[in-house]
Each structure stands twice: as C-alpha cells, then as structure tokens.
Design a protein that fits this description.
Elements: E1 7-10, E2 13-16, H1 27-31, E3 34-42, E4 45-46, H2 49-62, H3 71-81, E5 88-95, E6 113-120, E7 129-135, H4 150-161, E8 166-171, E9 174-178, E10 182-187, E11 190-193, H5 204-215, E12 220-222, H6 227-232, E13 236-240, E14 244-251, E15 254-255, H7 264-281
Parallel strand pairs: 7-8, 7-14, 11-12
Antiparallel strand pairs: 1-2, 1-6, 3-4, 3-5, 5-6, 8-9, 10-11, 10-13, 13-14, 14-15
Bound molecules: 4'-deoxy-4'-aminopyridoxal-5'-phosphate (PMP).
4'-deoxy-4'-aminopyridoxal-5'-phosphate is lined by residues 38, 177, 180-182, 201, 203-206, 239-241.
Length: 282
Amino acid sequence: MAENDCLVYLNGDYLPVGEAKVSVLDRGFLFGDGVYEVVPVYGGRPFRLDEHLRRLDGSLHGIRMANPLPDDRWAEIFNRLINGEHDQYIYLQVTRGAAPKRDHAIPADVKPTVFVMCSAIAPIPISGVCAVTVDDIRWRWCHIKAITLLANVLLRQEAVDRNAAEAILVRDGWVTEGAASNVFAVIDGVLTTPPKGNDLLPGITRDLVLELAQENGVPAVERRISLDDLKRAPEIWLTSSTREILPVIELDGVAVGQGEPGPLWPRMQAIYQAYKQRLRMA
Ligand code: PMP
C-alpha cells in the first residue's frame, strides 16, 4: 500500500492519510496543546492496552481535558486500523481542538481533535546503541505525555549530531530519562531506574521490565541514578514501547562494560520476548 493510502482515524472518520486535514486554528498546531500515546501491537493485539489508556487519562487530566472516548471505542478504532499480524504501533493524539481565535487561555466549548494512525515498528538495533548525556532542559511536567516535544526533538538531534541514537537527560546531576525512552542501569548488581515523578514519563515498558524483574527474581530497584553512577554502570538500557529493551554499549564515547550488551540484558530480553509471545498466543 502506498504511504498516502494508509487509513487513519480523524474525528469519527476513517480516511486515507493524505485526505486527513486539521484546521490551522487547531490548538495542537498553534500551541502544542494536546497529548498522545504510542501503543505497540503484536499478533494483531494492542500490548498493555489498559496501561496505555490509563496513562492517557492521566495525561488528559494533567492538561485539564476529559477523555473524549470510552475505552471500548478506543479499542474499536485501534482494531479497525490494525493491519495484519506484523509488529506495528498505534499512535493516538488528542488536542484541545480549534478555537475561533488564538488565545493562550483554555477556550470553553471546543471540540477536541482526535487522531489515530497505525504504522509498522522499525527493526530494533538489539546489538546495542551509542548514547550521550545532555542537560535536561525540558519543562517540569514531564510525566504528561504532551505533544509539545520541541525540547525532546532538539535533545535527540544533539545525540544524532554526536553519532548517538539517544540522549540521556540529566537534571542537577541526576538521570531523568532518555529523549524518548526510560533509563535503566545496573548499579552494584542491581537493576536500577529512577523513581516516577514529574521529571519523567511513567513508561509502560519501564513498568513491565520492573514487573518482570520481580517475577523472575532479578534484583531491581527504583532509585535515583547520579551521572557518576551512570558513567560507572556496567550495563545501561533504554526502554520504550517501540524499542523495547535497548542496550547502550557506548556512553559519551566510552564503552559501557565490555562495549557489548552486558550479561543481564539477554536474560531480561528473553523474559520480555517470552511475555510478548504469551500475549500473542493468548
Ligand atoms: N520517556 C519519554 C520521554 C518517551 O517519549 C517515551 C516513549 N515515548 C518513554 C519514556 C517510554 O515510554 P513507553 O515505554 O511507555 O513507550
């Protein structure tokens, strides 16, 4: 199928992506006033759907919006857009909608804009990636999955400019997360990830990794990670819905551990893939 024929959902209609149009007065366009979700789909089924929809509720609540659709309606839209059994992901976006005039304050009686599309998941570079550390210049409500991603865009580009796949963000000497991922590091033999708070996104993959670690007897803890500890860690991983558990093999130009995925990674990777497989078969 040509890219432009791909079917998307926009405000109640299913139409080819090239025909989906939004007003220039949409507050998503003018202010970045909206939130989004990315839900992976394996074997034709959305993965951790409840968790993603609950996080969507949280993000909407954080920007003073109500969820425009009930869960079963979201699921119906996703199922209509899912195309076959290959690994794909649903992208959904809710903006505050188009108001008659441009004003920062939230307008009354505006209909939200609801957009959903489904895309193939790109191959994951499981042999490992390079990352760089950068100053976390973002706003202080990073727990909201807001479409306002300019800081993340610039930070990721800084990583790309330095031949790295991801920027690991550091605020006041403490690791927060990646530009589009959560961060794990093995510290004194314990899998460690920063605790949830306003300075990072409560990643669905992050939570699943912690859950699977506990179920499988892998020592894991939610604890702040200093930049010094990160630099000394023998293993660093990035987690996200579309990149799963990605080993970092080089940080700021220096090898992490032996410069290849460390010993805990294949174990957690096997546990994670087995979990995905169980869900595919369920
Ligand atoms: N943090 C940020 C800033 C992200 O953009 C993402 C992924 N979109 C994540 C963490 C990972 O979240 P999840 O595991 O839910 O994809």
